[in-house]
Design brief:
It contains 3 helices and 22 strands. The chain is mainly beta. Strands 9, 10, 12, 14, 15, 16 and 18 form a 7-stranded mixed beta sheet that branches. It has a 5-stranded mixed beta sheet with strand order 2-1-4-6-5. Strand 1 and strand 2 form a beta hairpin. The longest helix has 9 residues. The protein is globular and about 70 Å long. It starts with 6 loop residues before the first helix and ends in a 9-residue tail after the last strand.
Length: about 450
C-alpha cells in the first residue's frame, strides 16, 4: 500500500505530548489563556536512551541478554505498516512482555570488563546470527557454523560470549546474509560504559556528560519492496535495493519527536527528540549523542545552526597532540559506523529582549502568516515568554522554548515515501534556563 503524507502525520504532530511527561504540548484551537501550572523540564528526558533489561541469570560483572530473532510490523507516518524482522528481548522489559517484537533491537548496556553473554533464539524461517563489530575474542556455543558467526537454525538457538572491551558505542547486527537480514531490521546498539563511570563516554574526565540527557541516534533505511517480498516469500535481489523510508531508532519524522513508549507506536519504543536546557553553572554537563548507522548508506546528519563535538568513532576515543576532538556542523556517519558526540547550547542573548534587542524589526504577530494554522513559534525572538497568536492558530510551543531541526542533510532522506517532510529527521528542543513553565 502506498499512501500520501496526511492524517497520520497531523495526528502525530497534535499528539506529541500525549504520554506521561509530554515532549511537546499541542494547544488546541486559538492560542489563549494557558494556565499557570509549572511544567519543569523532565529529568531524565522522556526520550533519552533506554537500556535493555538483562536476564535473571545475570550476575554482577556478568550480564546475560536473552534475544529472540522474530518478526512484526512497524508503523510509518504515511499510514503504511511494514513487515520487519528484529531482535526481541526474551525477558520482560516493561512495557514489553518477554519476546515482544520491537524495532530496532534492544540497546545492550554493559560496563568495561564485563563478561557478556548473549543468547539468541531464532523464530525466523531461516538461519540467523549476531556479530559484534569492535568486540574481540567473541566465542560461541551451539548452533551451526556460518560465514561470519555461528548461526541459530530456524527454531534453534546459539549463544555468544565476549569480554566488553574499549568503552564507547557499537553496532550489533546479523552476520547471516546481512544485505537482506540487516535491512529487514536485525540490528541494535551495544553501549560499553567506561571504568571511569557511567556519566563519562570514555576513560577521560573531559568526556563527562549529563546522564539524564543521553540519546541514541540509530540511523537506517527501509526498502519497502524487499520487506514485502520477504513477507510474501518472493525472490528479491538486494543489489537493486531502493529505500523509500529513512528512520531514526526505527521511527520516521514526525514520530521521531514523540516520547519513548507512546501508545500509538507499540513496536517502536525509542524517541529521538534531543531535549536540553542551556549550559549554565547549574547545568554544566553536555548531552551525549550516540550515533549508530545500521544502514548501507552514509548519512550526513546535522543540527541546524549548531555544532556537535565528536569524542570518538567506532568505540575509540579520538586522541592527539593538544586534543583531536572536532566540532562539526554536518558529519557523515558511514555505513556500520558509530560516533559519540557531546552537545551544548549557549544562551548568547541572555533572555533579555529589552536590554539586548534583536537588531531588526520583528513583524507583529497579526502581520505574520502561519502555514496550516500551526507553528512552533512562541511569539518572541527570545526564549522564556509566549505571546498571543492570531485566532485559529495552534502553537506547539509550550513555554517559550526554542526548536531546531536535526536531520539528514541528504534531502531525499527527509521524506516518507516521496512526501516531505519526514524520514530521517528529529528536533532539538531548548528550554529556558529555569525550566519549562507556562505564563
Amino acid at each position: 500500500m502506498r499512501t500520501r503524507f496526511g492524517t497520520r502525520t497531523r495526528r502525530a504532530l497534535l499528539a506529541l505530548g500525549a504520554a506521561g511527561t509530554a515532549a511537546l504540548a499541542a494547544v488546541g484551537g486559538a492560542h489563549g489563556a494557558v494556565g499557570t501550572a509549572a511544567l519543569p523540564t523532565p529529568s531524565p528526558s522522556p526520550t533519552r536512551m533506554m537500556c535493555a533489561a538483562t536476564s535473571p541469570a545475570s550476575a554482577p560483572g556478568a550480564p546475560v541478554f536473552d534475544l529472540e530473532a522474530t518478526s512484526g510490523r512497524a508503523s510509518f507516518p504515511d499510514g503504511n505498516s511494514i513487515y520487519m524482522w528484529s531482535y526481541a528481548n526474551g525477558v520482560a522489559d516493561p512495557p514489553f512482555a518477554a519476546g515482544a517484537f520491537r524495532t530496532p533491537g534492544p540497546t545492550l548496556c554493559v560496563n568495561e570488563g564485563d563478561a557478556v553473554t548473549v543468547n539468541l533464539a531464532n523464530h525466523l524461517p531461516e538461519p540467523t546470527s549476531i556479530v559484534f563489530p569492535g568486540q574481540t575474542g567473541v566465542s560461541s556455543s551451539g548452533g551451526a557454523p556460518g560465514l561470519l558467526a555461528a548461526e541459530a537454525p530456524a527454531s534453534g538457538a546459539v549463544s555468544y560470549a565476549f569480554t566488553a572491551g574499549e568503552p564507547g558505542t557499537y553496532l550489533y547486527e546479523s552476520g547471516t546474509d546481512p544485505a537482506k537480514q540487516v535491512q529487514m531490521g536485525l540490528n541494535g546498539a551495544l553501549v560499553v560504559r567506561p571504568a571511569l563511570g557511567a556519566s563519562y563516554a570514555y576513560n577521560d574526565p573531559a568526556t563527562s556528560f549529563d546522564p539524564n540527557a543521553e540519546y541514541l541516534i540509530l540511523l537506517a533505511e527501509v526498502d519497502w519492496d524487499l520487506h514485502r517480498a520477504v513477507e510474501r516469500g518472493l525472490p528479491y535481489d538486494p543489489a537493486s535495493s531502493r529505500p523509500e523510508y529513512w528512520t531514526i531508532n526505527g521511527r520516521s519524522f514526525p514520530d521521531t519527536i514523540a516520547d519513548n513508549n507512546v501508545p500509538w507506536l507499540p513496536t517502536q519504543p525509542q524517541g529521538t527528540l534531543v531535549w536540553i536546557q542551556p549550559q549554565e553553572p547549574s547545568n554544566p554537563d553536555p548531552a551525549l549523542l550516540r550515533y549508530v548507522n545500521a544502514g548501507r548508506e552514509g548519512h550526513p546528519f546535522h543540527p541546524h545552526g549548531n555544532h556537535t563535538r565528536i569524542l570518538g568513532r567506532d568505540g575509540r576515543r579520538i586522541e592527539g597532540a593538544g586534543g583531536a576532538e572536532t566540532e562539526n556542523f554536518t558529519k557523515v556517519v558511514g555505513p556500520g559506523q558509530t560516533m559519540d558526540a557531546t552537545f551544548t547550547w549557549t544562551d548568547l542573548e541572555r533572555w533579555q529582549p529589552g536590554t539586548n534587542p534583536v537588531p531588526v524589526t520583528i513583524p507583529g504577530l497579526q502581520n505574520l502568516v502561519f502555514k496550516d494554522g500551526a507553528t512552533f513559534y512562541g511569539g518572541s525572538p527570545y526564549l522564556g515568554q509566549r505571546d498571543a497568536l492570531p485566532p485559529k492558530v495552534t502553537t506547539f510551543n509550550e513555554c517559550g522554548e526554542l526548536y531546531f531541526p536535526w536531520h539528514s542533510h541528504a534531502l531525499f532522506e527527509f521524506q516518507n515515501f516521496n512526501e516531505g517532510f519526514g524520514g530521517m529527521a528529529t528536533l532539538l528542543r531548548v528550554d529556558p534556563p529555569a525550566g519549562c513553565t507556562t505564563p
